[in-house]
Design brief:
Length: about 190
């Protein structure tokens, strides 16, 4: 993994690029063309009705002062928009963060998110000096929860009714964590 702050080179095919306003059209087009698929697990899909909604989302990230702004990236696969990944709910004082992600339906099962999460773990631990990274995912979202399991995250438990989905129904959320010391104990 190579990083220059705005771009993380995950592999020859995968690049994470910090989100910019110019990405709003790709974000919206992907959401709009995959509403049923993405909307099953992502509550924001139902509120993303026009490209202006995606622009407002990007602006909400960019308007935060740099010292408090979360790192949010678009995933580029073979130079095409593939999805998004980034940190959320970071707590700098306690040196912990959460990774969230979503990927276009046709690019599933290629290892794109798994490799992107690996790159963000390295970025979180070794450049941002976090001590803890967590991933939360709906209990029934098998594709998403397979990622922390595959990467050796520790299952911590279930947040009952932890997230309100766009269909107005709460879902239980599985919580996984990885500590910097977990990597060191694995010899990485």
């Amino acid at each position: 993994m190579k990083s220059n702050g705005k771009i993380i080179q995950v592999s020859d095919e995968i690049i994470l690029k910090q989100v910019e306003l110019s990405d709003a059209q790709d974000i919206f087009s992907t959401i709009d063309s995959q509403r049923e698929y993405l909307g099953k697990w992502l509550p924001f899909v139902s509120n993303t009705r026009t490209v202006k909604d995606s622009e407002a989302f990007v602006k909400s990230i960019l308007d935060i002062p740099l010292d408090r702004r979360e790192y949010v990236f678009v995933i580029k696969y073979c130079n095409n928009f593939a999805g998004m990944i980034g940190f959320k709910d970071s707590d700098n004082f306690n040196r912990k963060t959460e990774i969230g992600y979503w990927l276009s339906k046709d690019l599933q099962k290629k290892g794109i998110v798994t490799r992107s999460v690996c790159a963000l773990i390295e970025f979180a631990f070794f450049e941002l000096h976090f001590n803890r990274v967590q991933i939360k995912c709906a209990v029934a979202n098998t594709l998403s929860r397979n990622i922390p399991i595959k990467l050796g995250f520790e299952f911590e438990g279930i947040e009952r009714d932890g997230e309100l989905l766009s269909n107005g129904i709460f879902t239980d959320i599985e919580v996984y964590s990885l500590l910097r010391s977990d990597l060191q104990s694995k010899g990485e």
